## 1
Amino acid sequence: MNLLYAPNWKSQQRQFEKKNVCIYPVRLAMEATYQRNQGHNVWFDKPTTQSDKYDRIITEPEGIPFLDLPIPDRKLTNAFHPKYQNNGNYKYHPGAYMLSASGCWHGKCTFCVEKNQQYQVRSVESVIEELEGLYAQGFKEVFDDSGTFPDGDWLEQFCIWKCAAGLADLPFSCNMRIGANVDFDLMKMAGFRMLLYGVESANQETLTKIKKGFNYDQIIPTIKQASEAGLSPHIAVMFGYPWEKDKDSRQTLRLAHYLLRKGYATTAQSSFYDVEGEKSNEEAKKYVSKIFEVWKYPEFWYNKIKDIKSKEDWGYFCKQIKEGLKNV
C-alpha cells in the first residue's frame, strides 16, 4: 500500500487554539515508521498534488497502540528540516522530539485533546536506547512531548540510567505537572534543562473547573524549587475562560509577570481558551500578548542577563527578545 503522511497543525497539538505552531509530529512519525516496517511504501511530509498516487493520505495519528510503535526513523520523517528546527523548545540545534509516554498520567484537563486517554509508558531501556540513537545522529537537545513525563520511580531510574549511559551532557526537556513526584536535583544532574508547566490560571475556581488537579498555592513553590535546582521552568497560561472576569485575567497576568521577574520562570507562553461548544471571553484576548510586557521591569532584565553564561545562552536570549518584539 502507498501511504502519504501529510502533517498539519493539529498533528501534534493538545490545545487546538494554538493554530500556527509547527512542531515535529513525533507520534505521526512513529506510526509512519511502523507502517514502513510492515512493508508499506511510506512518504512523509510531501506535496499532495499527486494524490491519486497514494492509497491513503494520513494527517493525524490513527491510534496504533502506543507500545507497539517503534522509534521513529528521523530521516524518513524529515526531523532535520528547518521548519521543525525553528522551535522555541530548543536552545541547542539540531533538536529532536520524542515520546516516552502516551498522554498524561493526570489526563483530566477539560481543554486537552488527550483527556481520558490511556496513559502508557515505555520502558526506561527503550527510551535510553532512543536517546543513544539521537546522540549518535548528531542531535544536540531532546524535548520529550509526552503530555506529562513519567515521574516517581520511573523518573528516578531514567535519570540514573541516562547518567550511566554517558548522556548526562545531552540536554533534555519535557512537559511536567505541578504536583509531580520529582527530584529536581537528580534531574539537573541527569541533564534536564527546561520543564514546561501548564500553570493555566492564577484563580483557584478556574483550576478546579478545568480539572488541573493542583491548587494555586502549589504553583510558585514548585517553579521556584525547579529554578533553584538549576533547571529552566517554562510556564504556560491561558486567558479567555467564559466564567472569568477582567480581574481574574489580570491576576493570572500578575502571576506570570511575577515568576518571570523573579527569574523563577525562565520563559513563558500564553494562549486563548477556545474550546468547541463553549463561548470564550473575547475581551480577554488583549491579555495574551500582555505577558510580553514583563520587559518593562528592570528586575526581569537583571535576572535574564545574569543567567547568560555561554554563546548558546546569548543566542537563546536574543531569540526570546525577537519573539517578544513580535507581540509587543
## 2
Amino acid sequence: MNRHYQSTALFNWLRRKVFKIEKPVALGWGQWSKWKEKIKKEKPAGYFFTETLPDVLEWIPEHSIDYIDKVRYYFVNWLDNSHRLDSTLEKGKYHEFSERILYSLFDSYADFIEIEEAHMHVVFASKEDKAKYNVPWWKEYRIFRWNVWRCPQAGIDHLKWEMTLDVPDPNDPSWQSSPLQAANAREKMALYTWWKHIRPTRGSAWEVSGFRTFWDKMEKKYGKNWLEFGTKSKMTAAEQRTYNKLSEDQNNLEEEWFKEDTEMLIRLVKIRRDLWT
C-alpha cells in the first residue's frame, strides 16, 4: 500500500505541536519550492523530521517493489491506451477528420476529469469519503491497480474544491491563496459541463431548424421521391419559399454550432498546461 506519511497523524502532530510549522493546504505554481526552502532554512530539524523523513519512509517500500511496478505500469498503460487519445464515435462508420479532432480531444478530456481528477480527489481521502464514492478495495493497493476506476462525481467535486482556493478559509490559519489554480478549475468545469451536459442537448440542426418536420410533411403529401433533382419541382411557390428558408436556417445553425465547437476547442488547448495530476 502506498502510504503518504507526510499527511499521517504522527507527522501532522510533529509539524504543528513540536516544530510549530504551519504547512499550507495548497500553493500556486512554483510556490512549494519557495516554502520548502524557507522552512529548511528557518527550522532545519523540523524540515528533516516532517518532510525528509516521511519521504524516506515512503521510498523504502516503494523501491523494494519497484521492478514489479514497472511491469504493472507498462501493462496498465498498454491496456488503457494512455499513449493516445480516444473517442466515443461509433465504430464501423467513417468520421471526418474535423469530427475526430473534436471528439477525440473532448472525450479524452472527460476521461481526464472522471478518472484522473477523480483519483486525486480520493487518493488521500478518509474511509468515509471513499465509501461515499464507492472506491473499490483494490484501488488501495498499487499491485492490484490494473483496472480503470471512473467516478464523474469525484472528479467534479475535486474541481469544486480547487475552485475555492482563492476564497480565504477563516478556520485555517495556514491557508494560502491560489487564484490561478482556482481560475483554471473554473475553466475546466465550464468545458466539462459544456461537453457533457450542454452540447448534447443541442440536437440536430435538421430537426431544430424545423427542416425535418417540413420534409416529412412534403413526403407525406407528394411521396418519398418528392424532391427529385433534375425534374420539375412538385412544390407550390409558397412551399418552395419555406424550403429555401428552412434550408438556410439549418445551414446557419450548423455554422453557428461549428463556430461554438471551434471556440471551445481553442479554450481547451489554452489550458493544456494545467491538465495534469
